[in-house]
Amino acid sequence: MSDWLQLSLLTLIAGLMMPLGAALACIERIRPSWLETDFRHSVIAFGGGALIAAVALVLVPQGSKDLSLTLVCISFASGGLAFMGLDYFLSSQGTSVSQLAAMLTDFVPEALAMGATFTVSPEAGLLLAIIIALQNLPEGFNAYRELAQSTSYPSWSVVSAFTLMALLGPLAGLTGHFFLADHPVIIAMVMMFAAGGILYLIFQDIAPQARLKNHYAPPLAALGGFLLGLIGHQIISP
Q1: Which pLDDT belongs to residue 220?
Q2: CA 206, 210, 213, 219 torsion-angle sign
Q3: What is the rounded CA–CA span in Å between residue 43 and residue 221?
Q4: Fewer beta carbons below 10 Å: N end or C end of the chain?
Q5: Looking at residues 190-209, what average pLDDT do you find?
């Protein structure tokens, strides 16, 4: 199988974890209600932990190594400010899509970077695709629940939209592979921009949603999400 076809397939599979997570979130509520509450907050926390791992172990280390300190600061701060503006606008409209924005901000830059480096190490690309897929599953679950609470879209339309979003994986991967492999500075700036945006969303929206008084499962789930990212980082690091 050619490199570009293998890359397309891997990034598509990783992206399809988003609608799969959304489909799981469509399942009727769990009983008793306390278990439903603990489970929902734990999945939010797990997704938040995975996002922090993506920032700390992938986006910032990979992005900062090819940029000057000035470009690191500009890219990172721009991401945070841009998502603050998006959050303010959506809040004024009564819509909340922080989980969706964080999911895509995590998925697209990682797929972009994966495409740019795939020809160097297909094995590392495969492992990275697995880690991205494992991150996308809880993030798709959380994004669906958030949209279901703040909008009136039918469940089938949300799952269908997430399925179309999965196509962003091959698109980003092939773009990185064919057009940006010789432009590491551009990829690095995109990754730092995404890191700033994700970090803003984690502390503004995701972490507060995960908090439950006198419940210990959500913070443990956050640790589990970060541990997942750490394991993946250790596996693919030379």
Answers
A1: 66
A2: negative
A3: 7
A4: C
A5: 74
Residue type at 163 in one-letter notation? T
Q: What is the pTM of this model?
A: 0.71
Q: What is the pLDDT of residue 34?
A: 46
- Return the structure tokens found at 145: 């629940």
Q: For the chain, give the number of residues.
A: 238
Is residue 166 a contact partner of residue 15, using CB atoms and an 8 Å limit? yes
Cβ contact 107:15 at 8 Å = yes
* DSSP for the chain, written as a single string: --HHHHHHHHHHHHHHHHHHHHHHHTSPPPSSHHHHHHHHHHHHHHHHHHHHHIIIIIIHHHHHTTS-HHHHHHHHHHHHHHHHHHHHHHHHTT---HHHHHHHHHHHHHHHHHHHHTTT-HHHHHHHHHHHHHHHHHHHHHHHHHHHHH----HHHHHHHHHHHTTHHHHHHHHHHHTSTT-HHHHHHHHHHHHHHHHHHIIIIIHHHH--TT--HHHHHHHHHHHHHHHHHHHH--
Rounded to whole angstroms, what are the CA distances from 81 to 5, 53, 77, 85, 226? 36, 21, 6, 6, 25
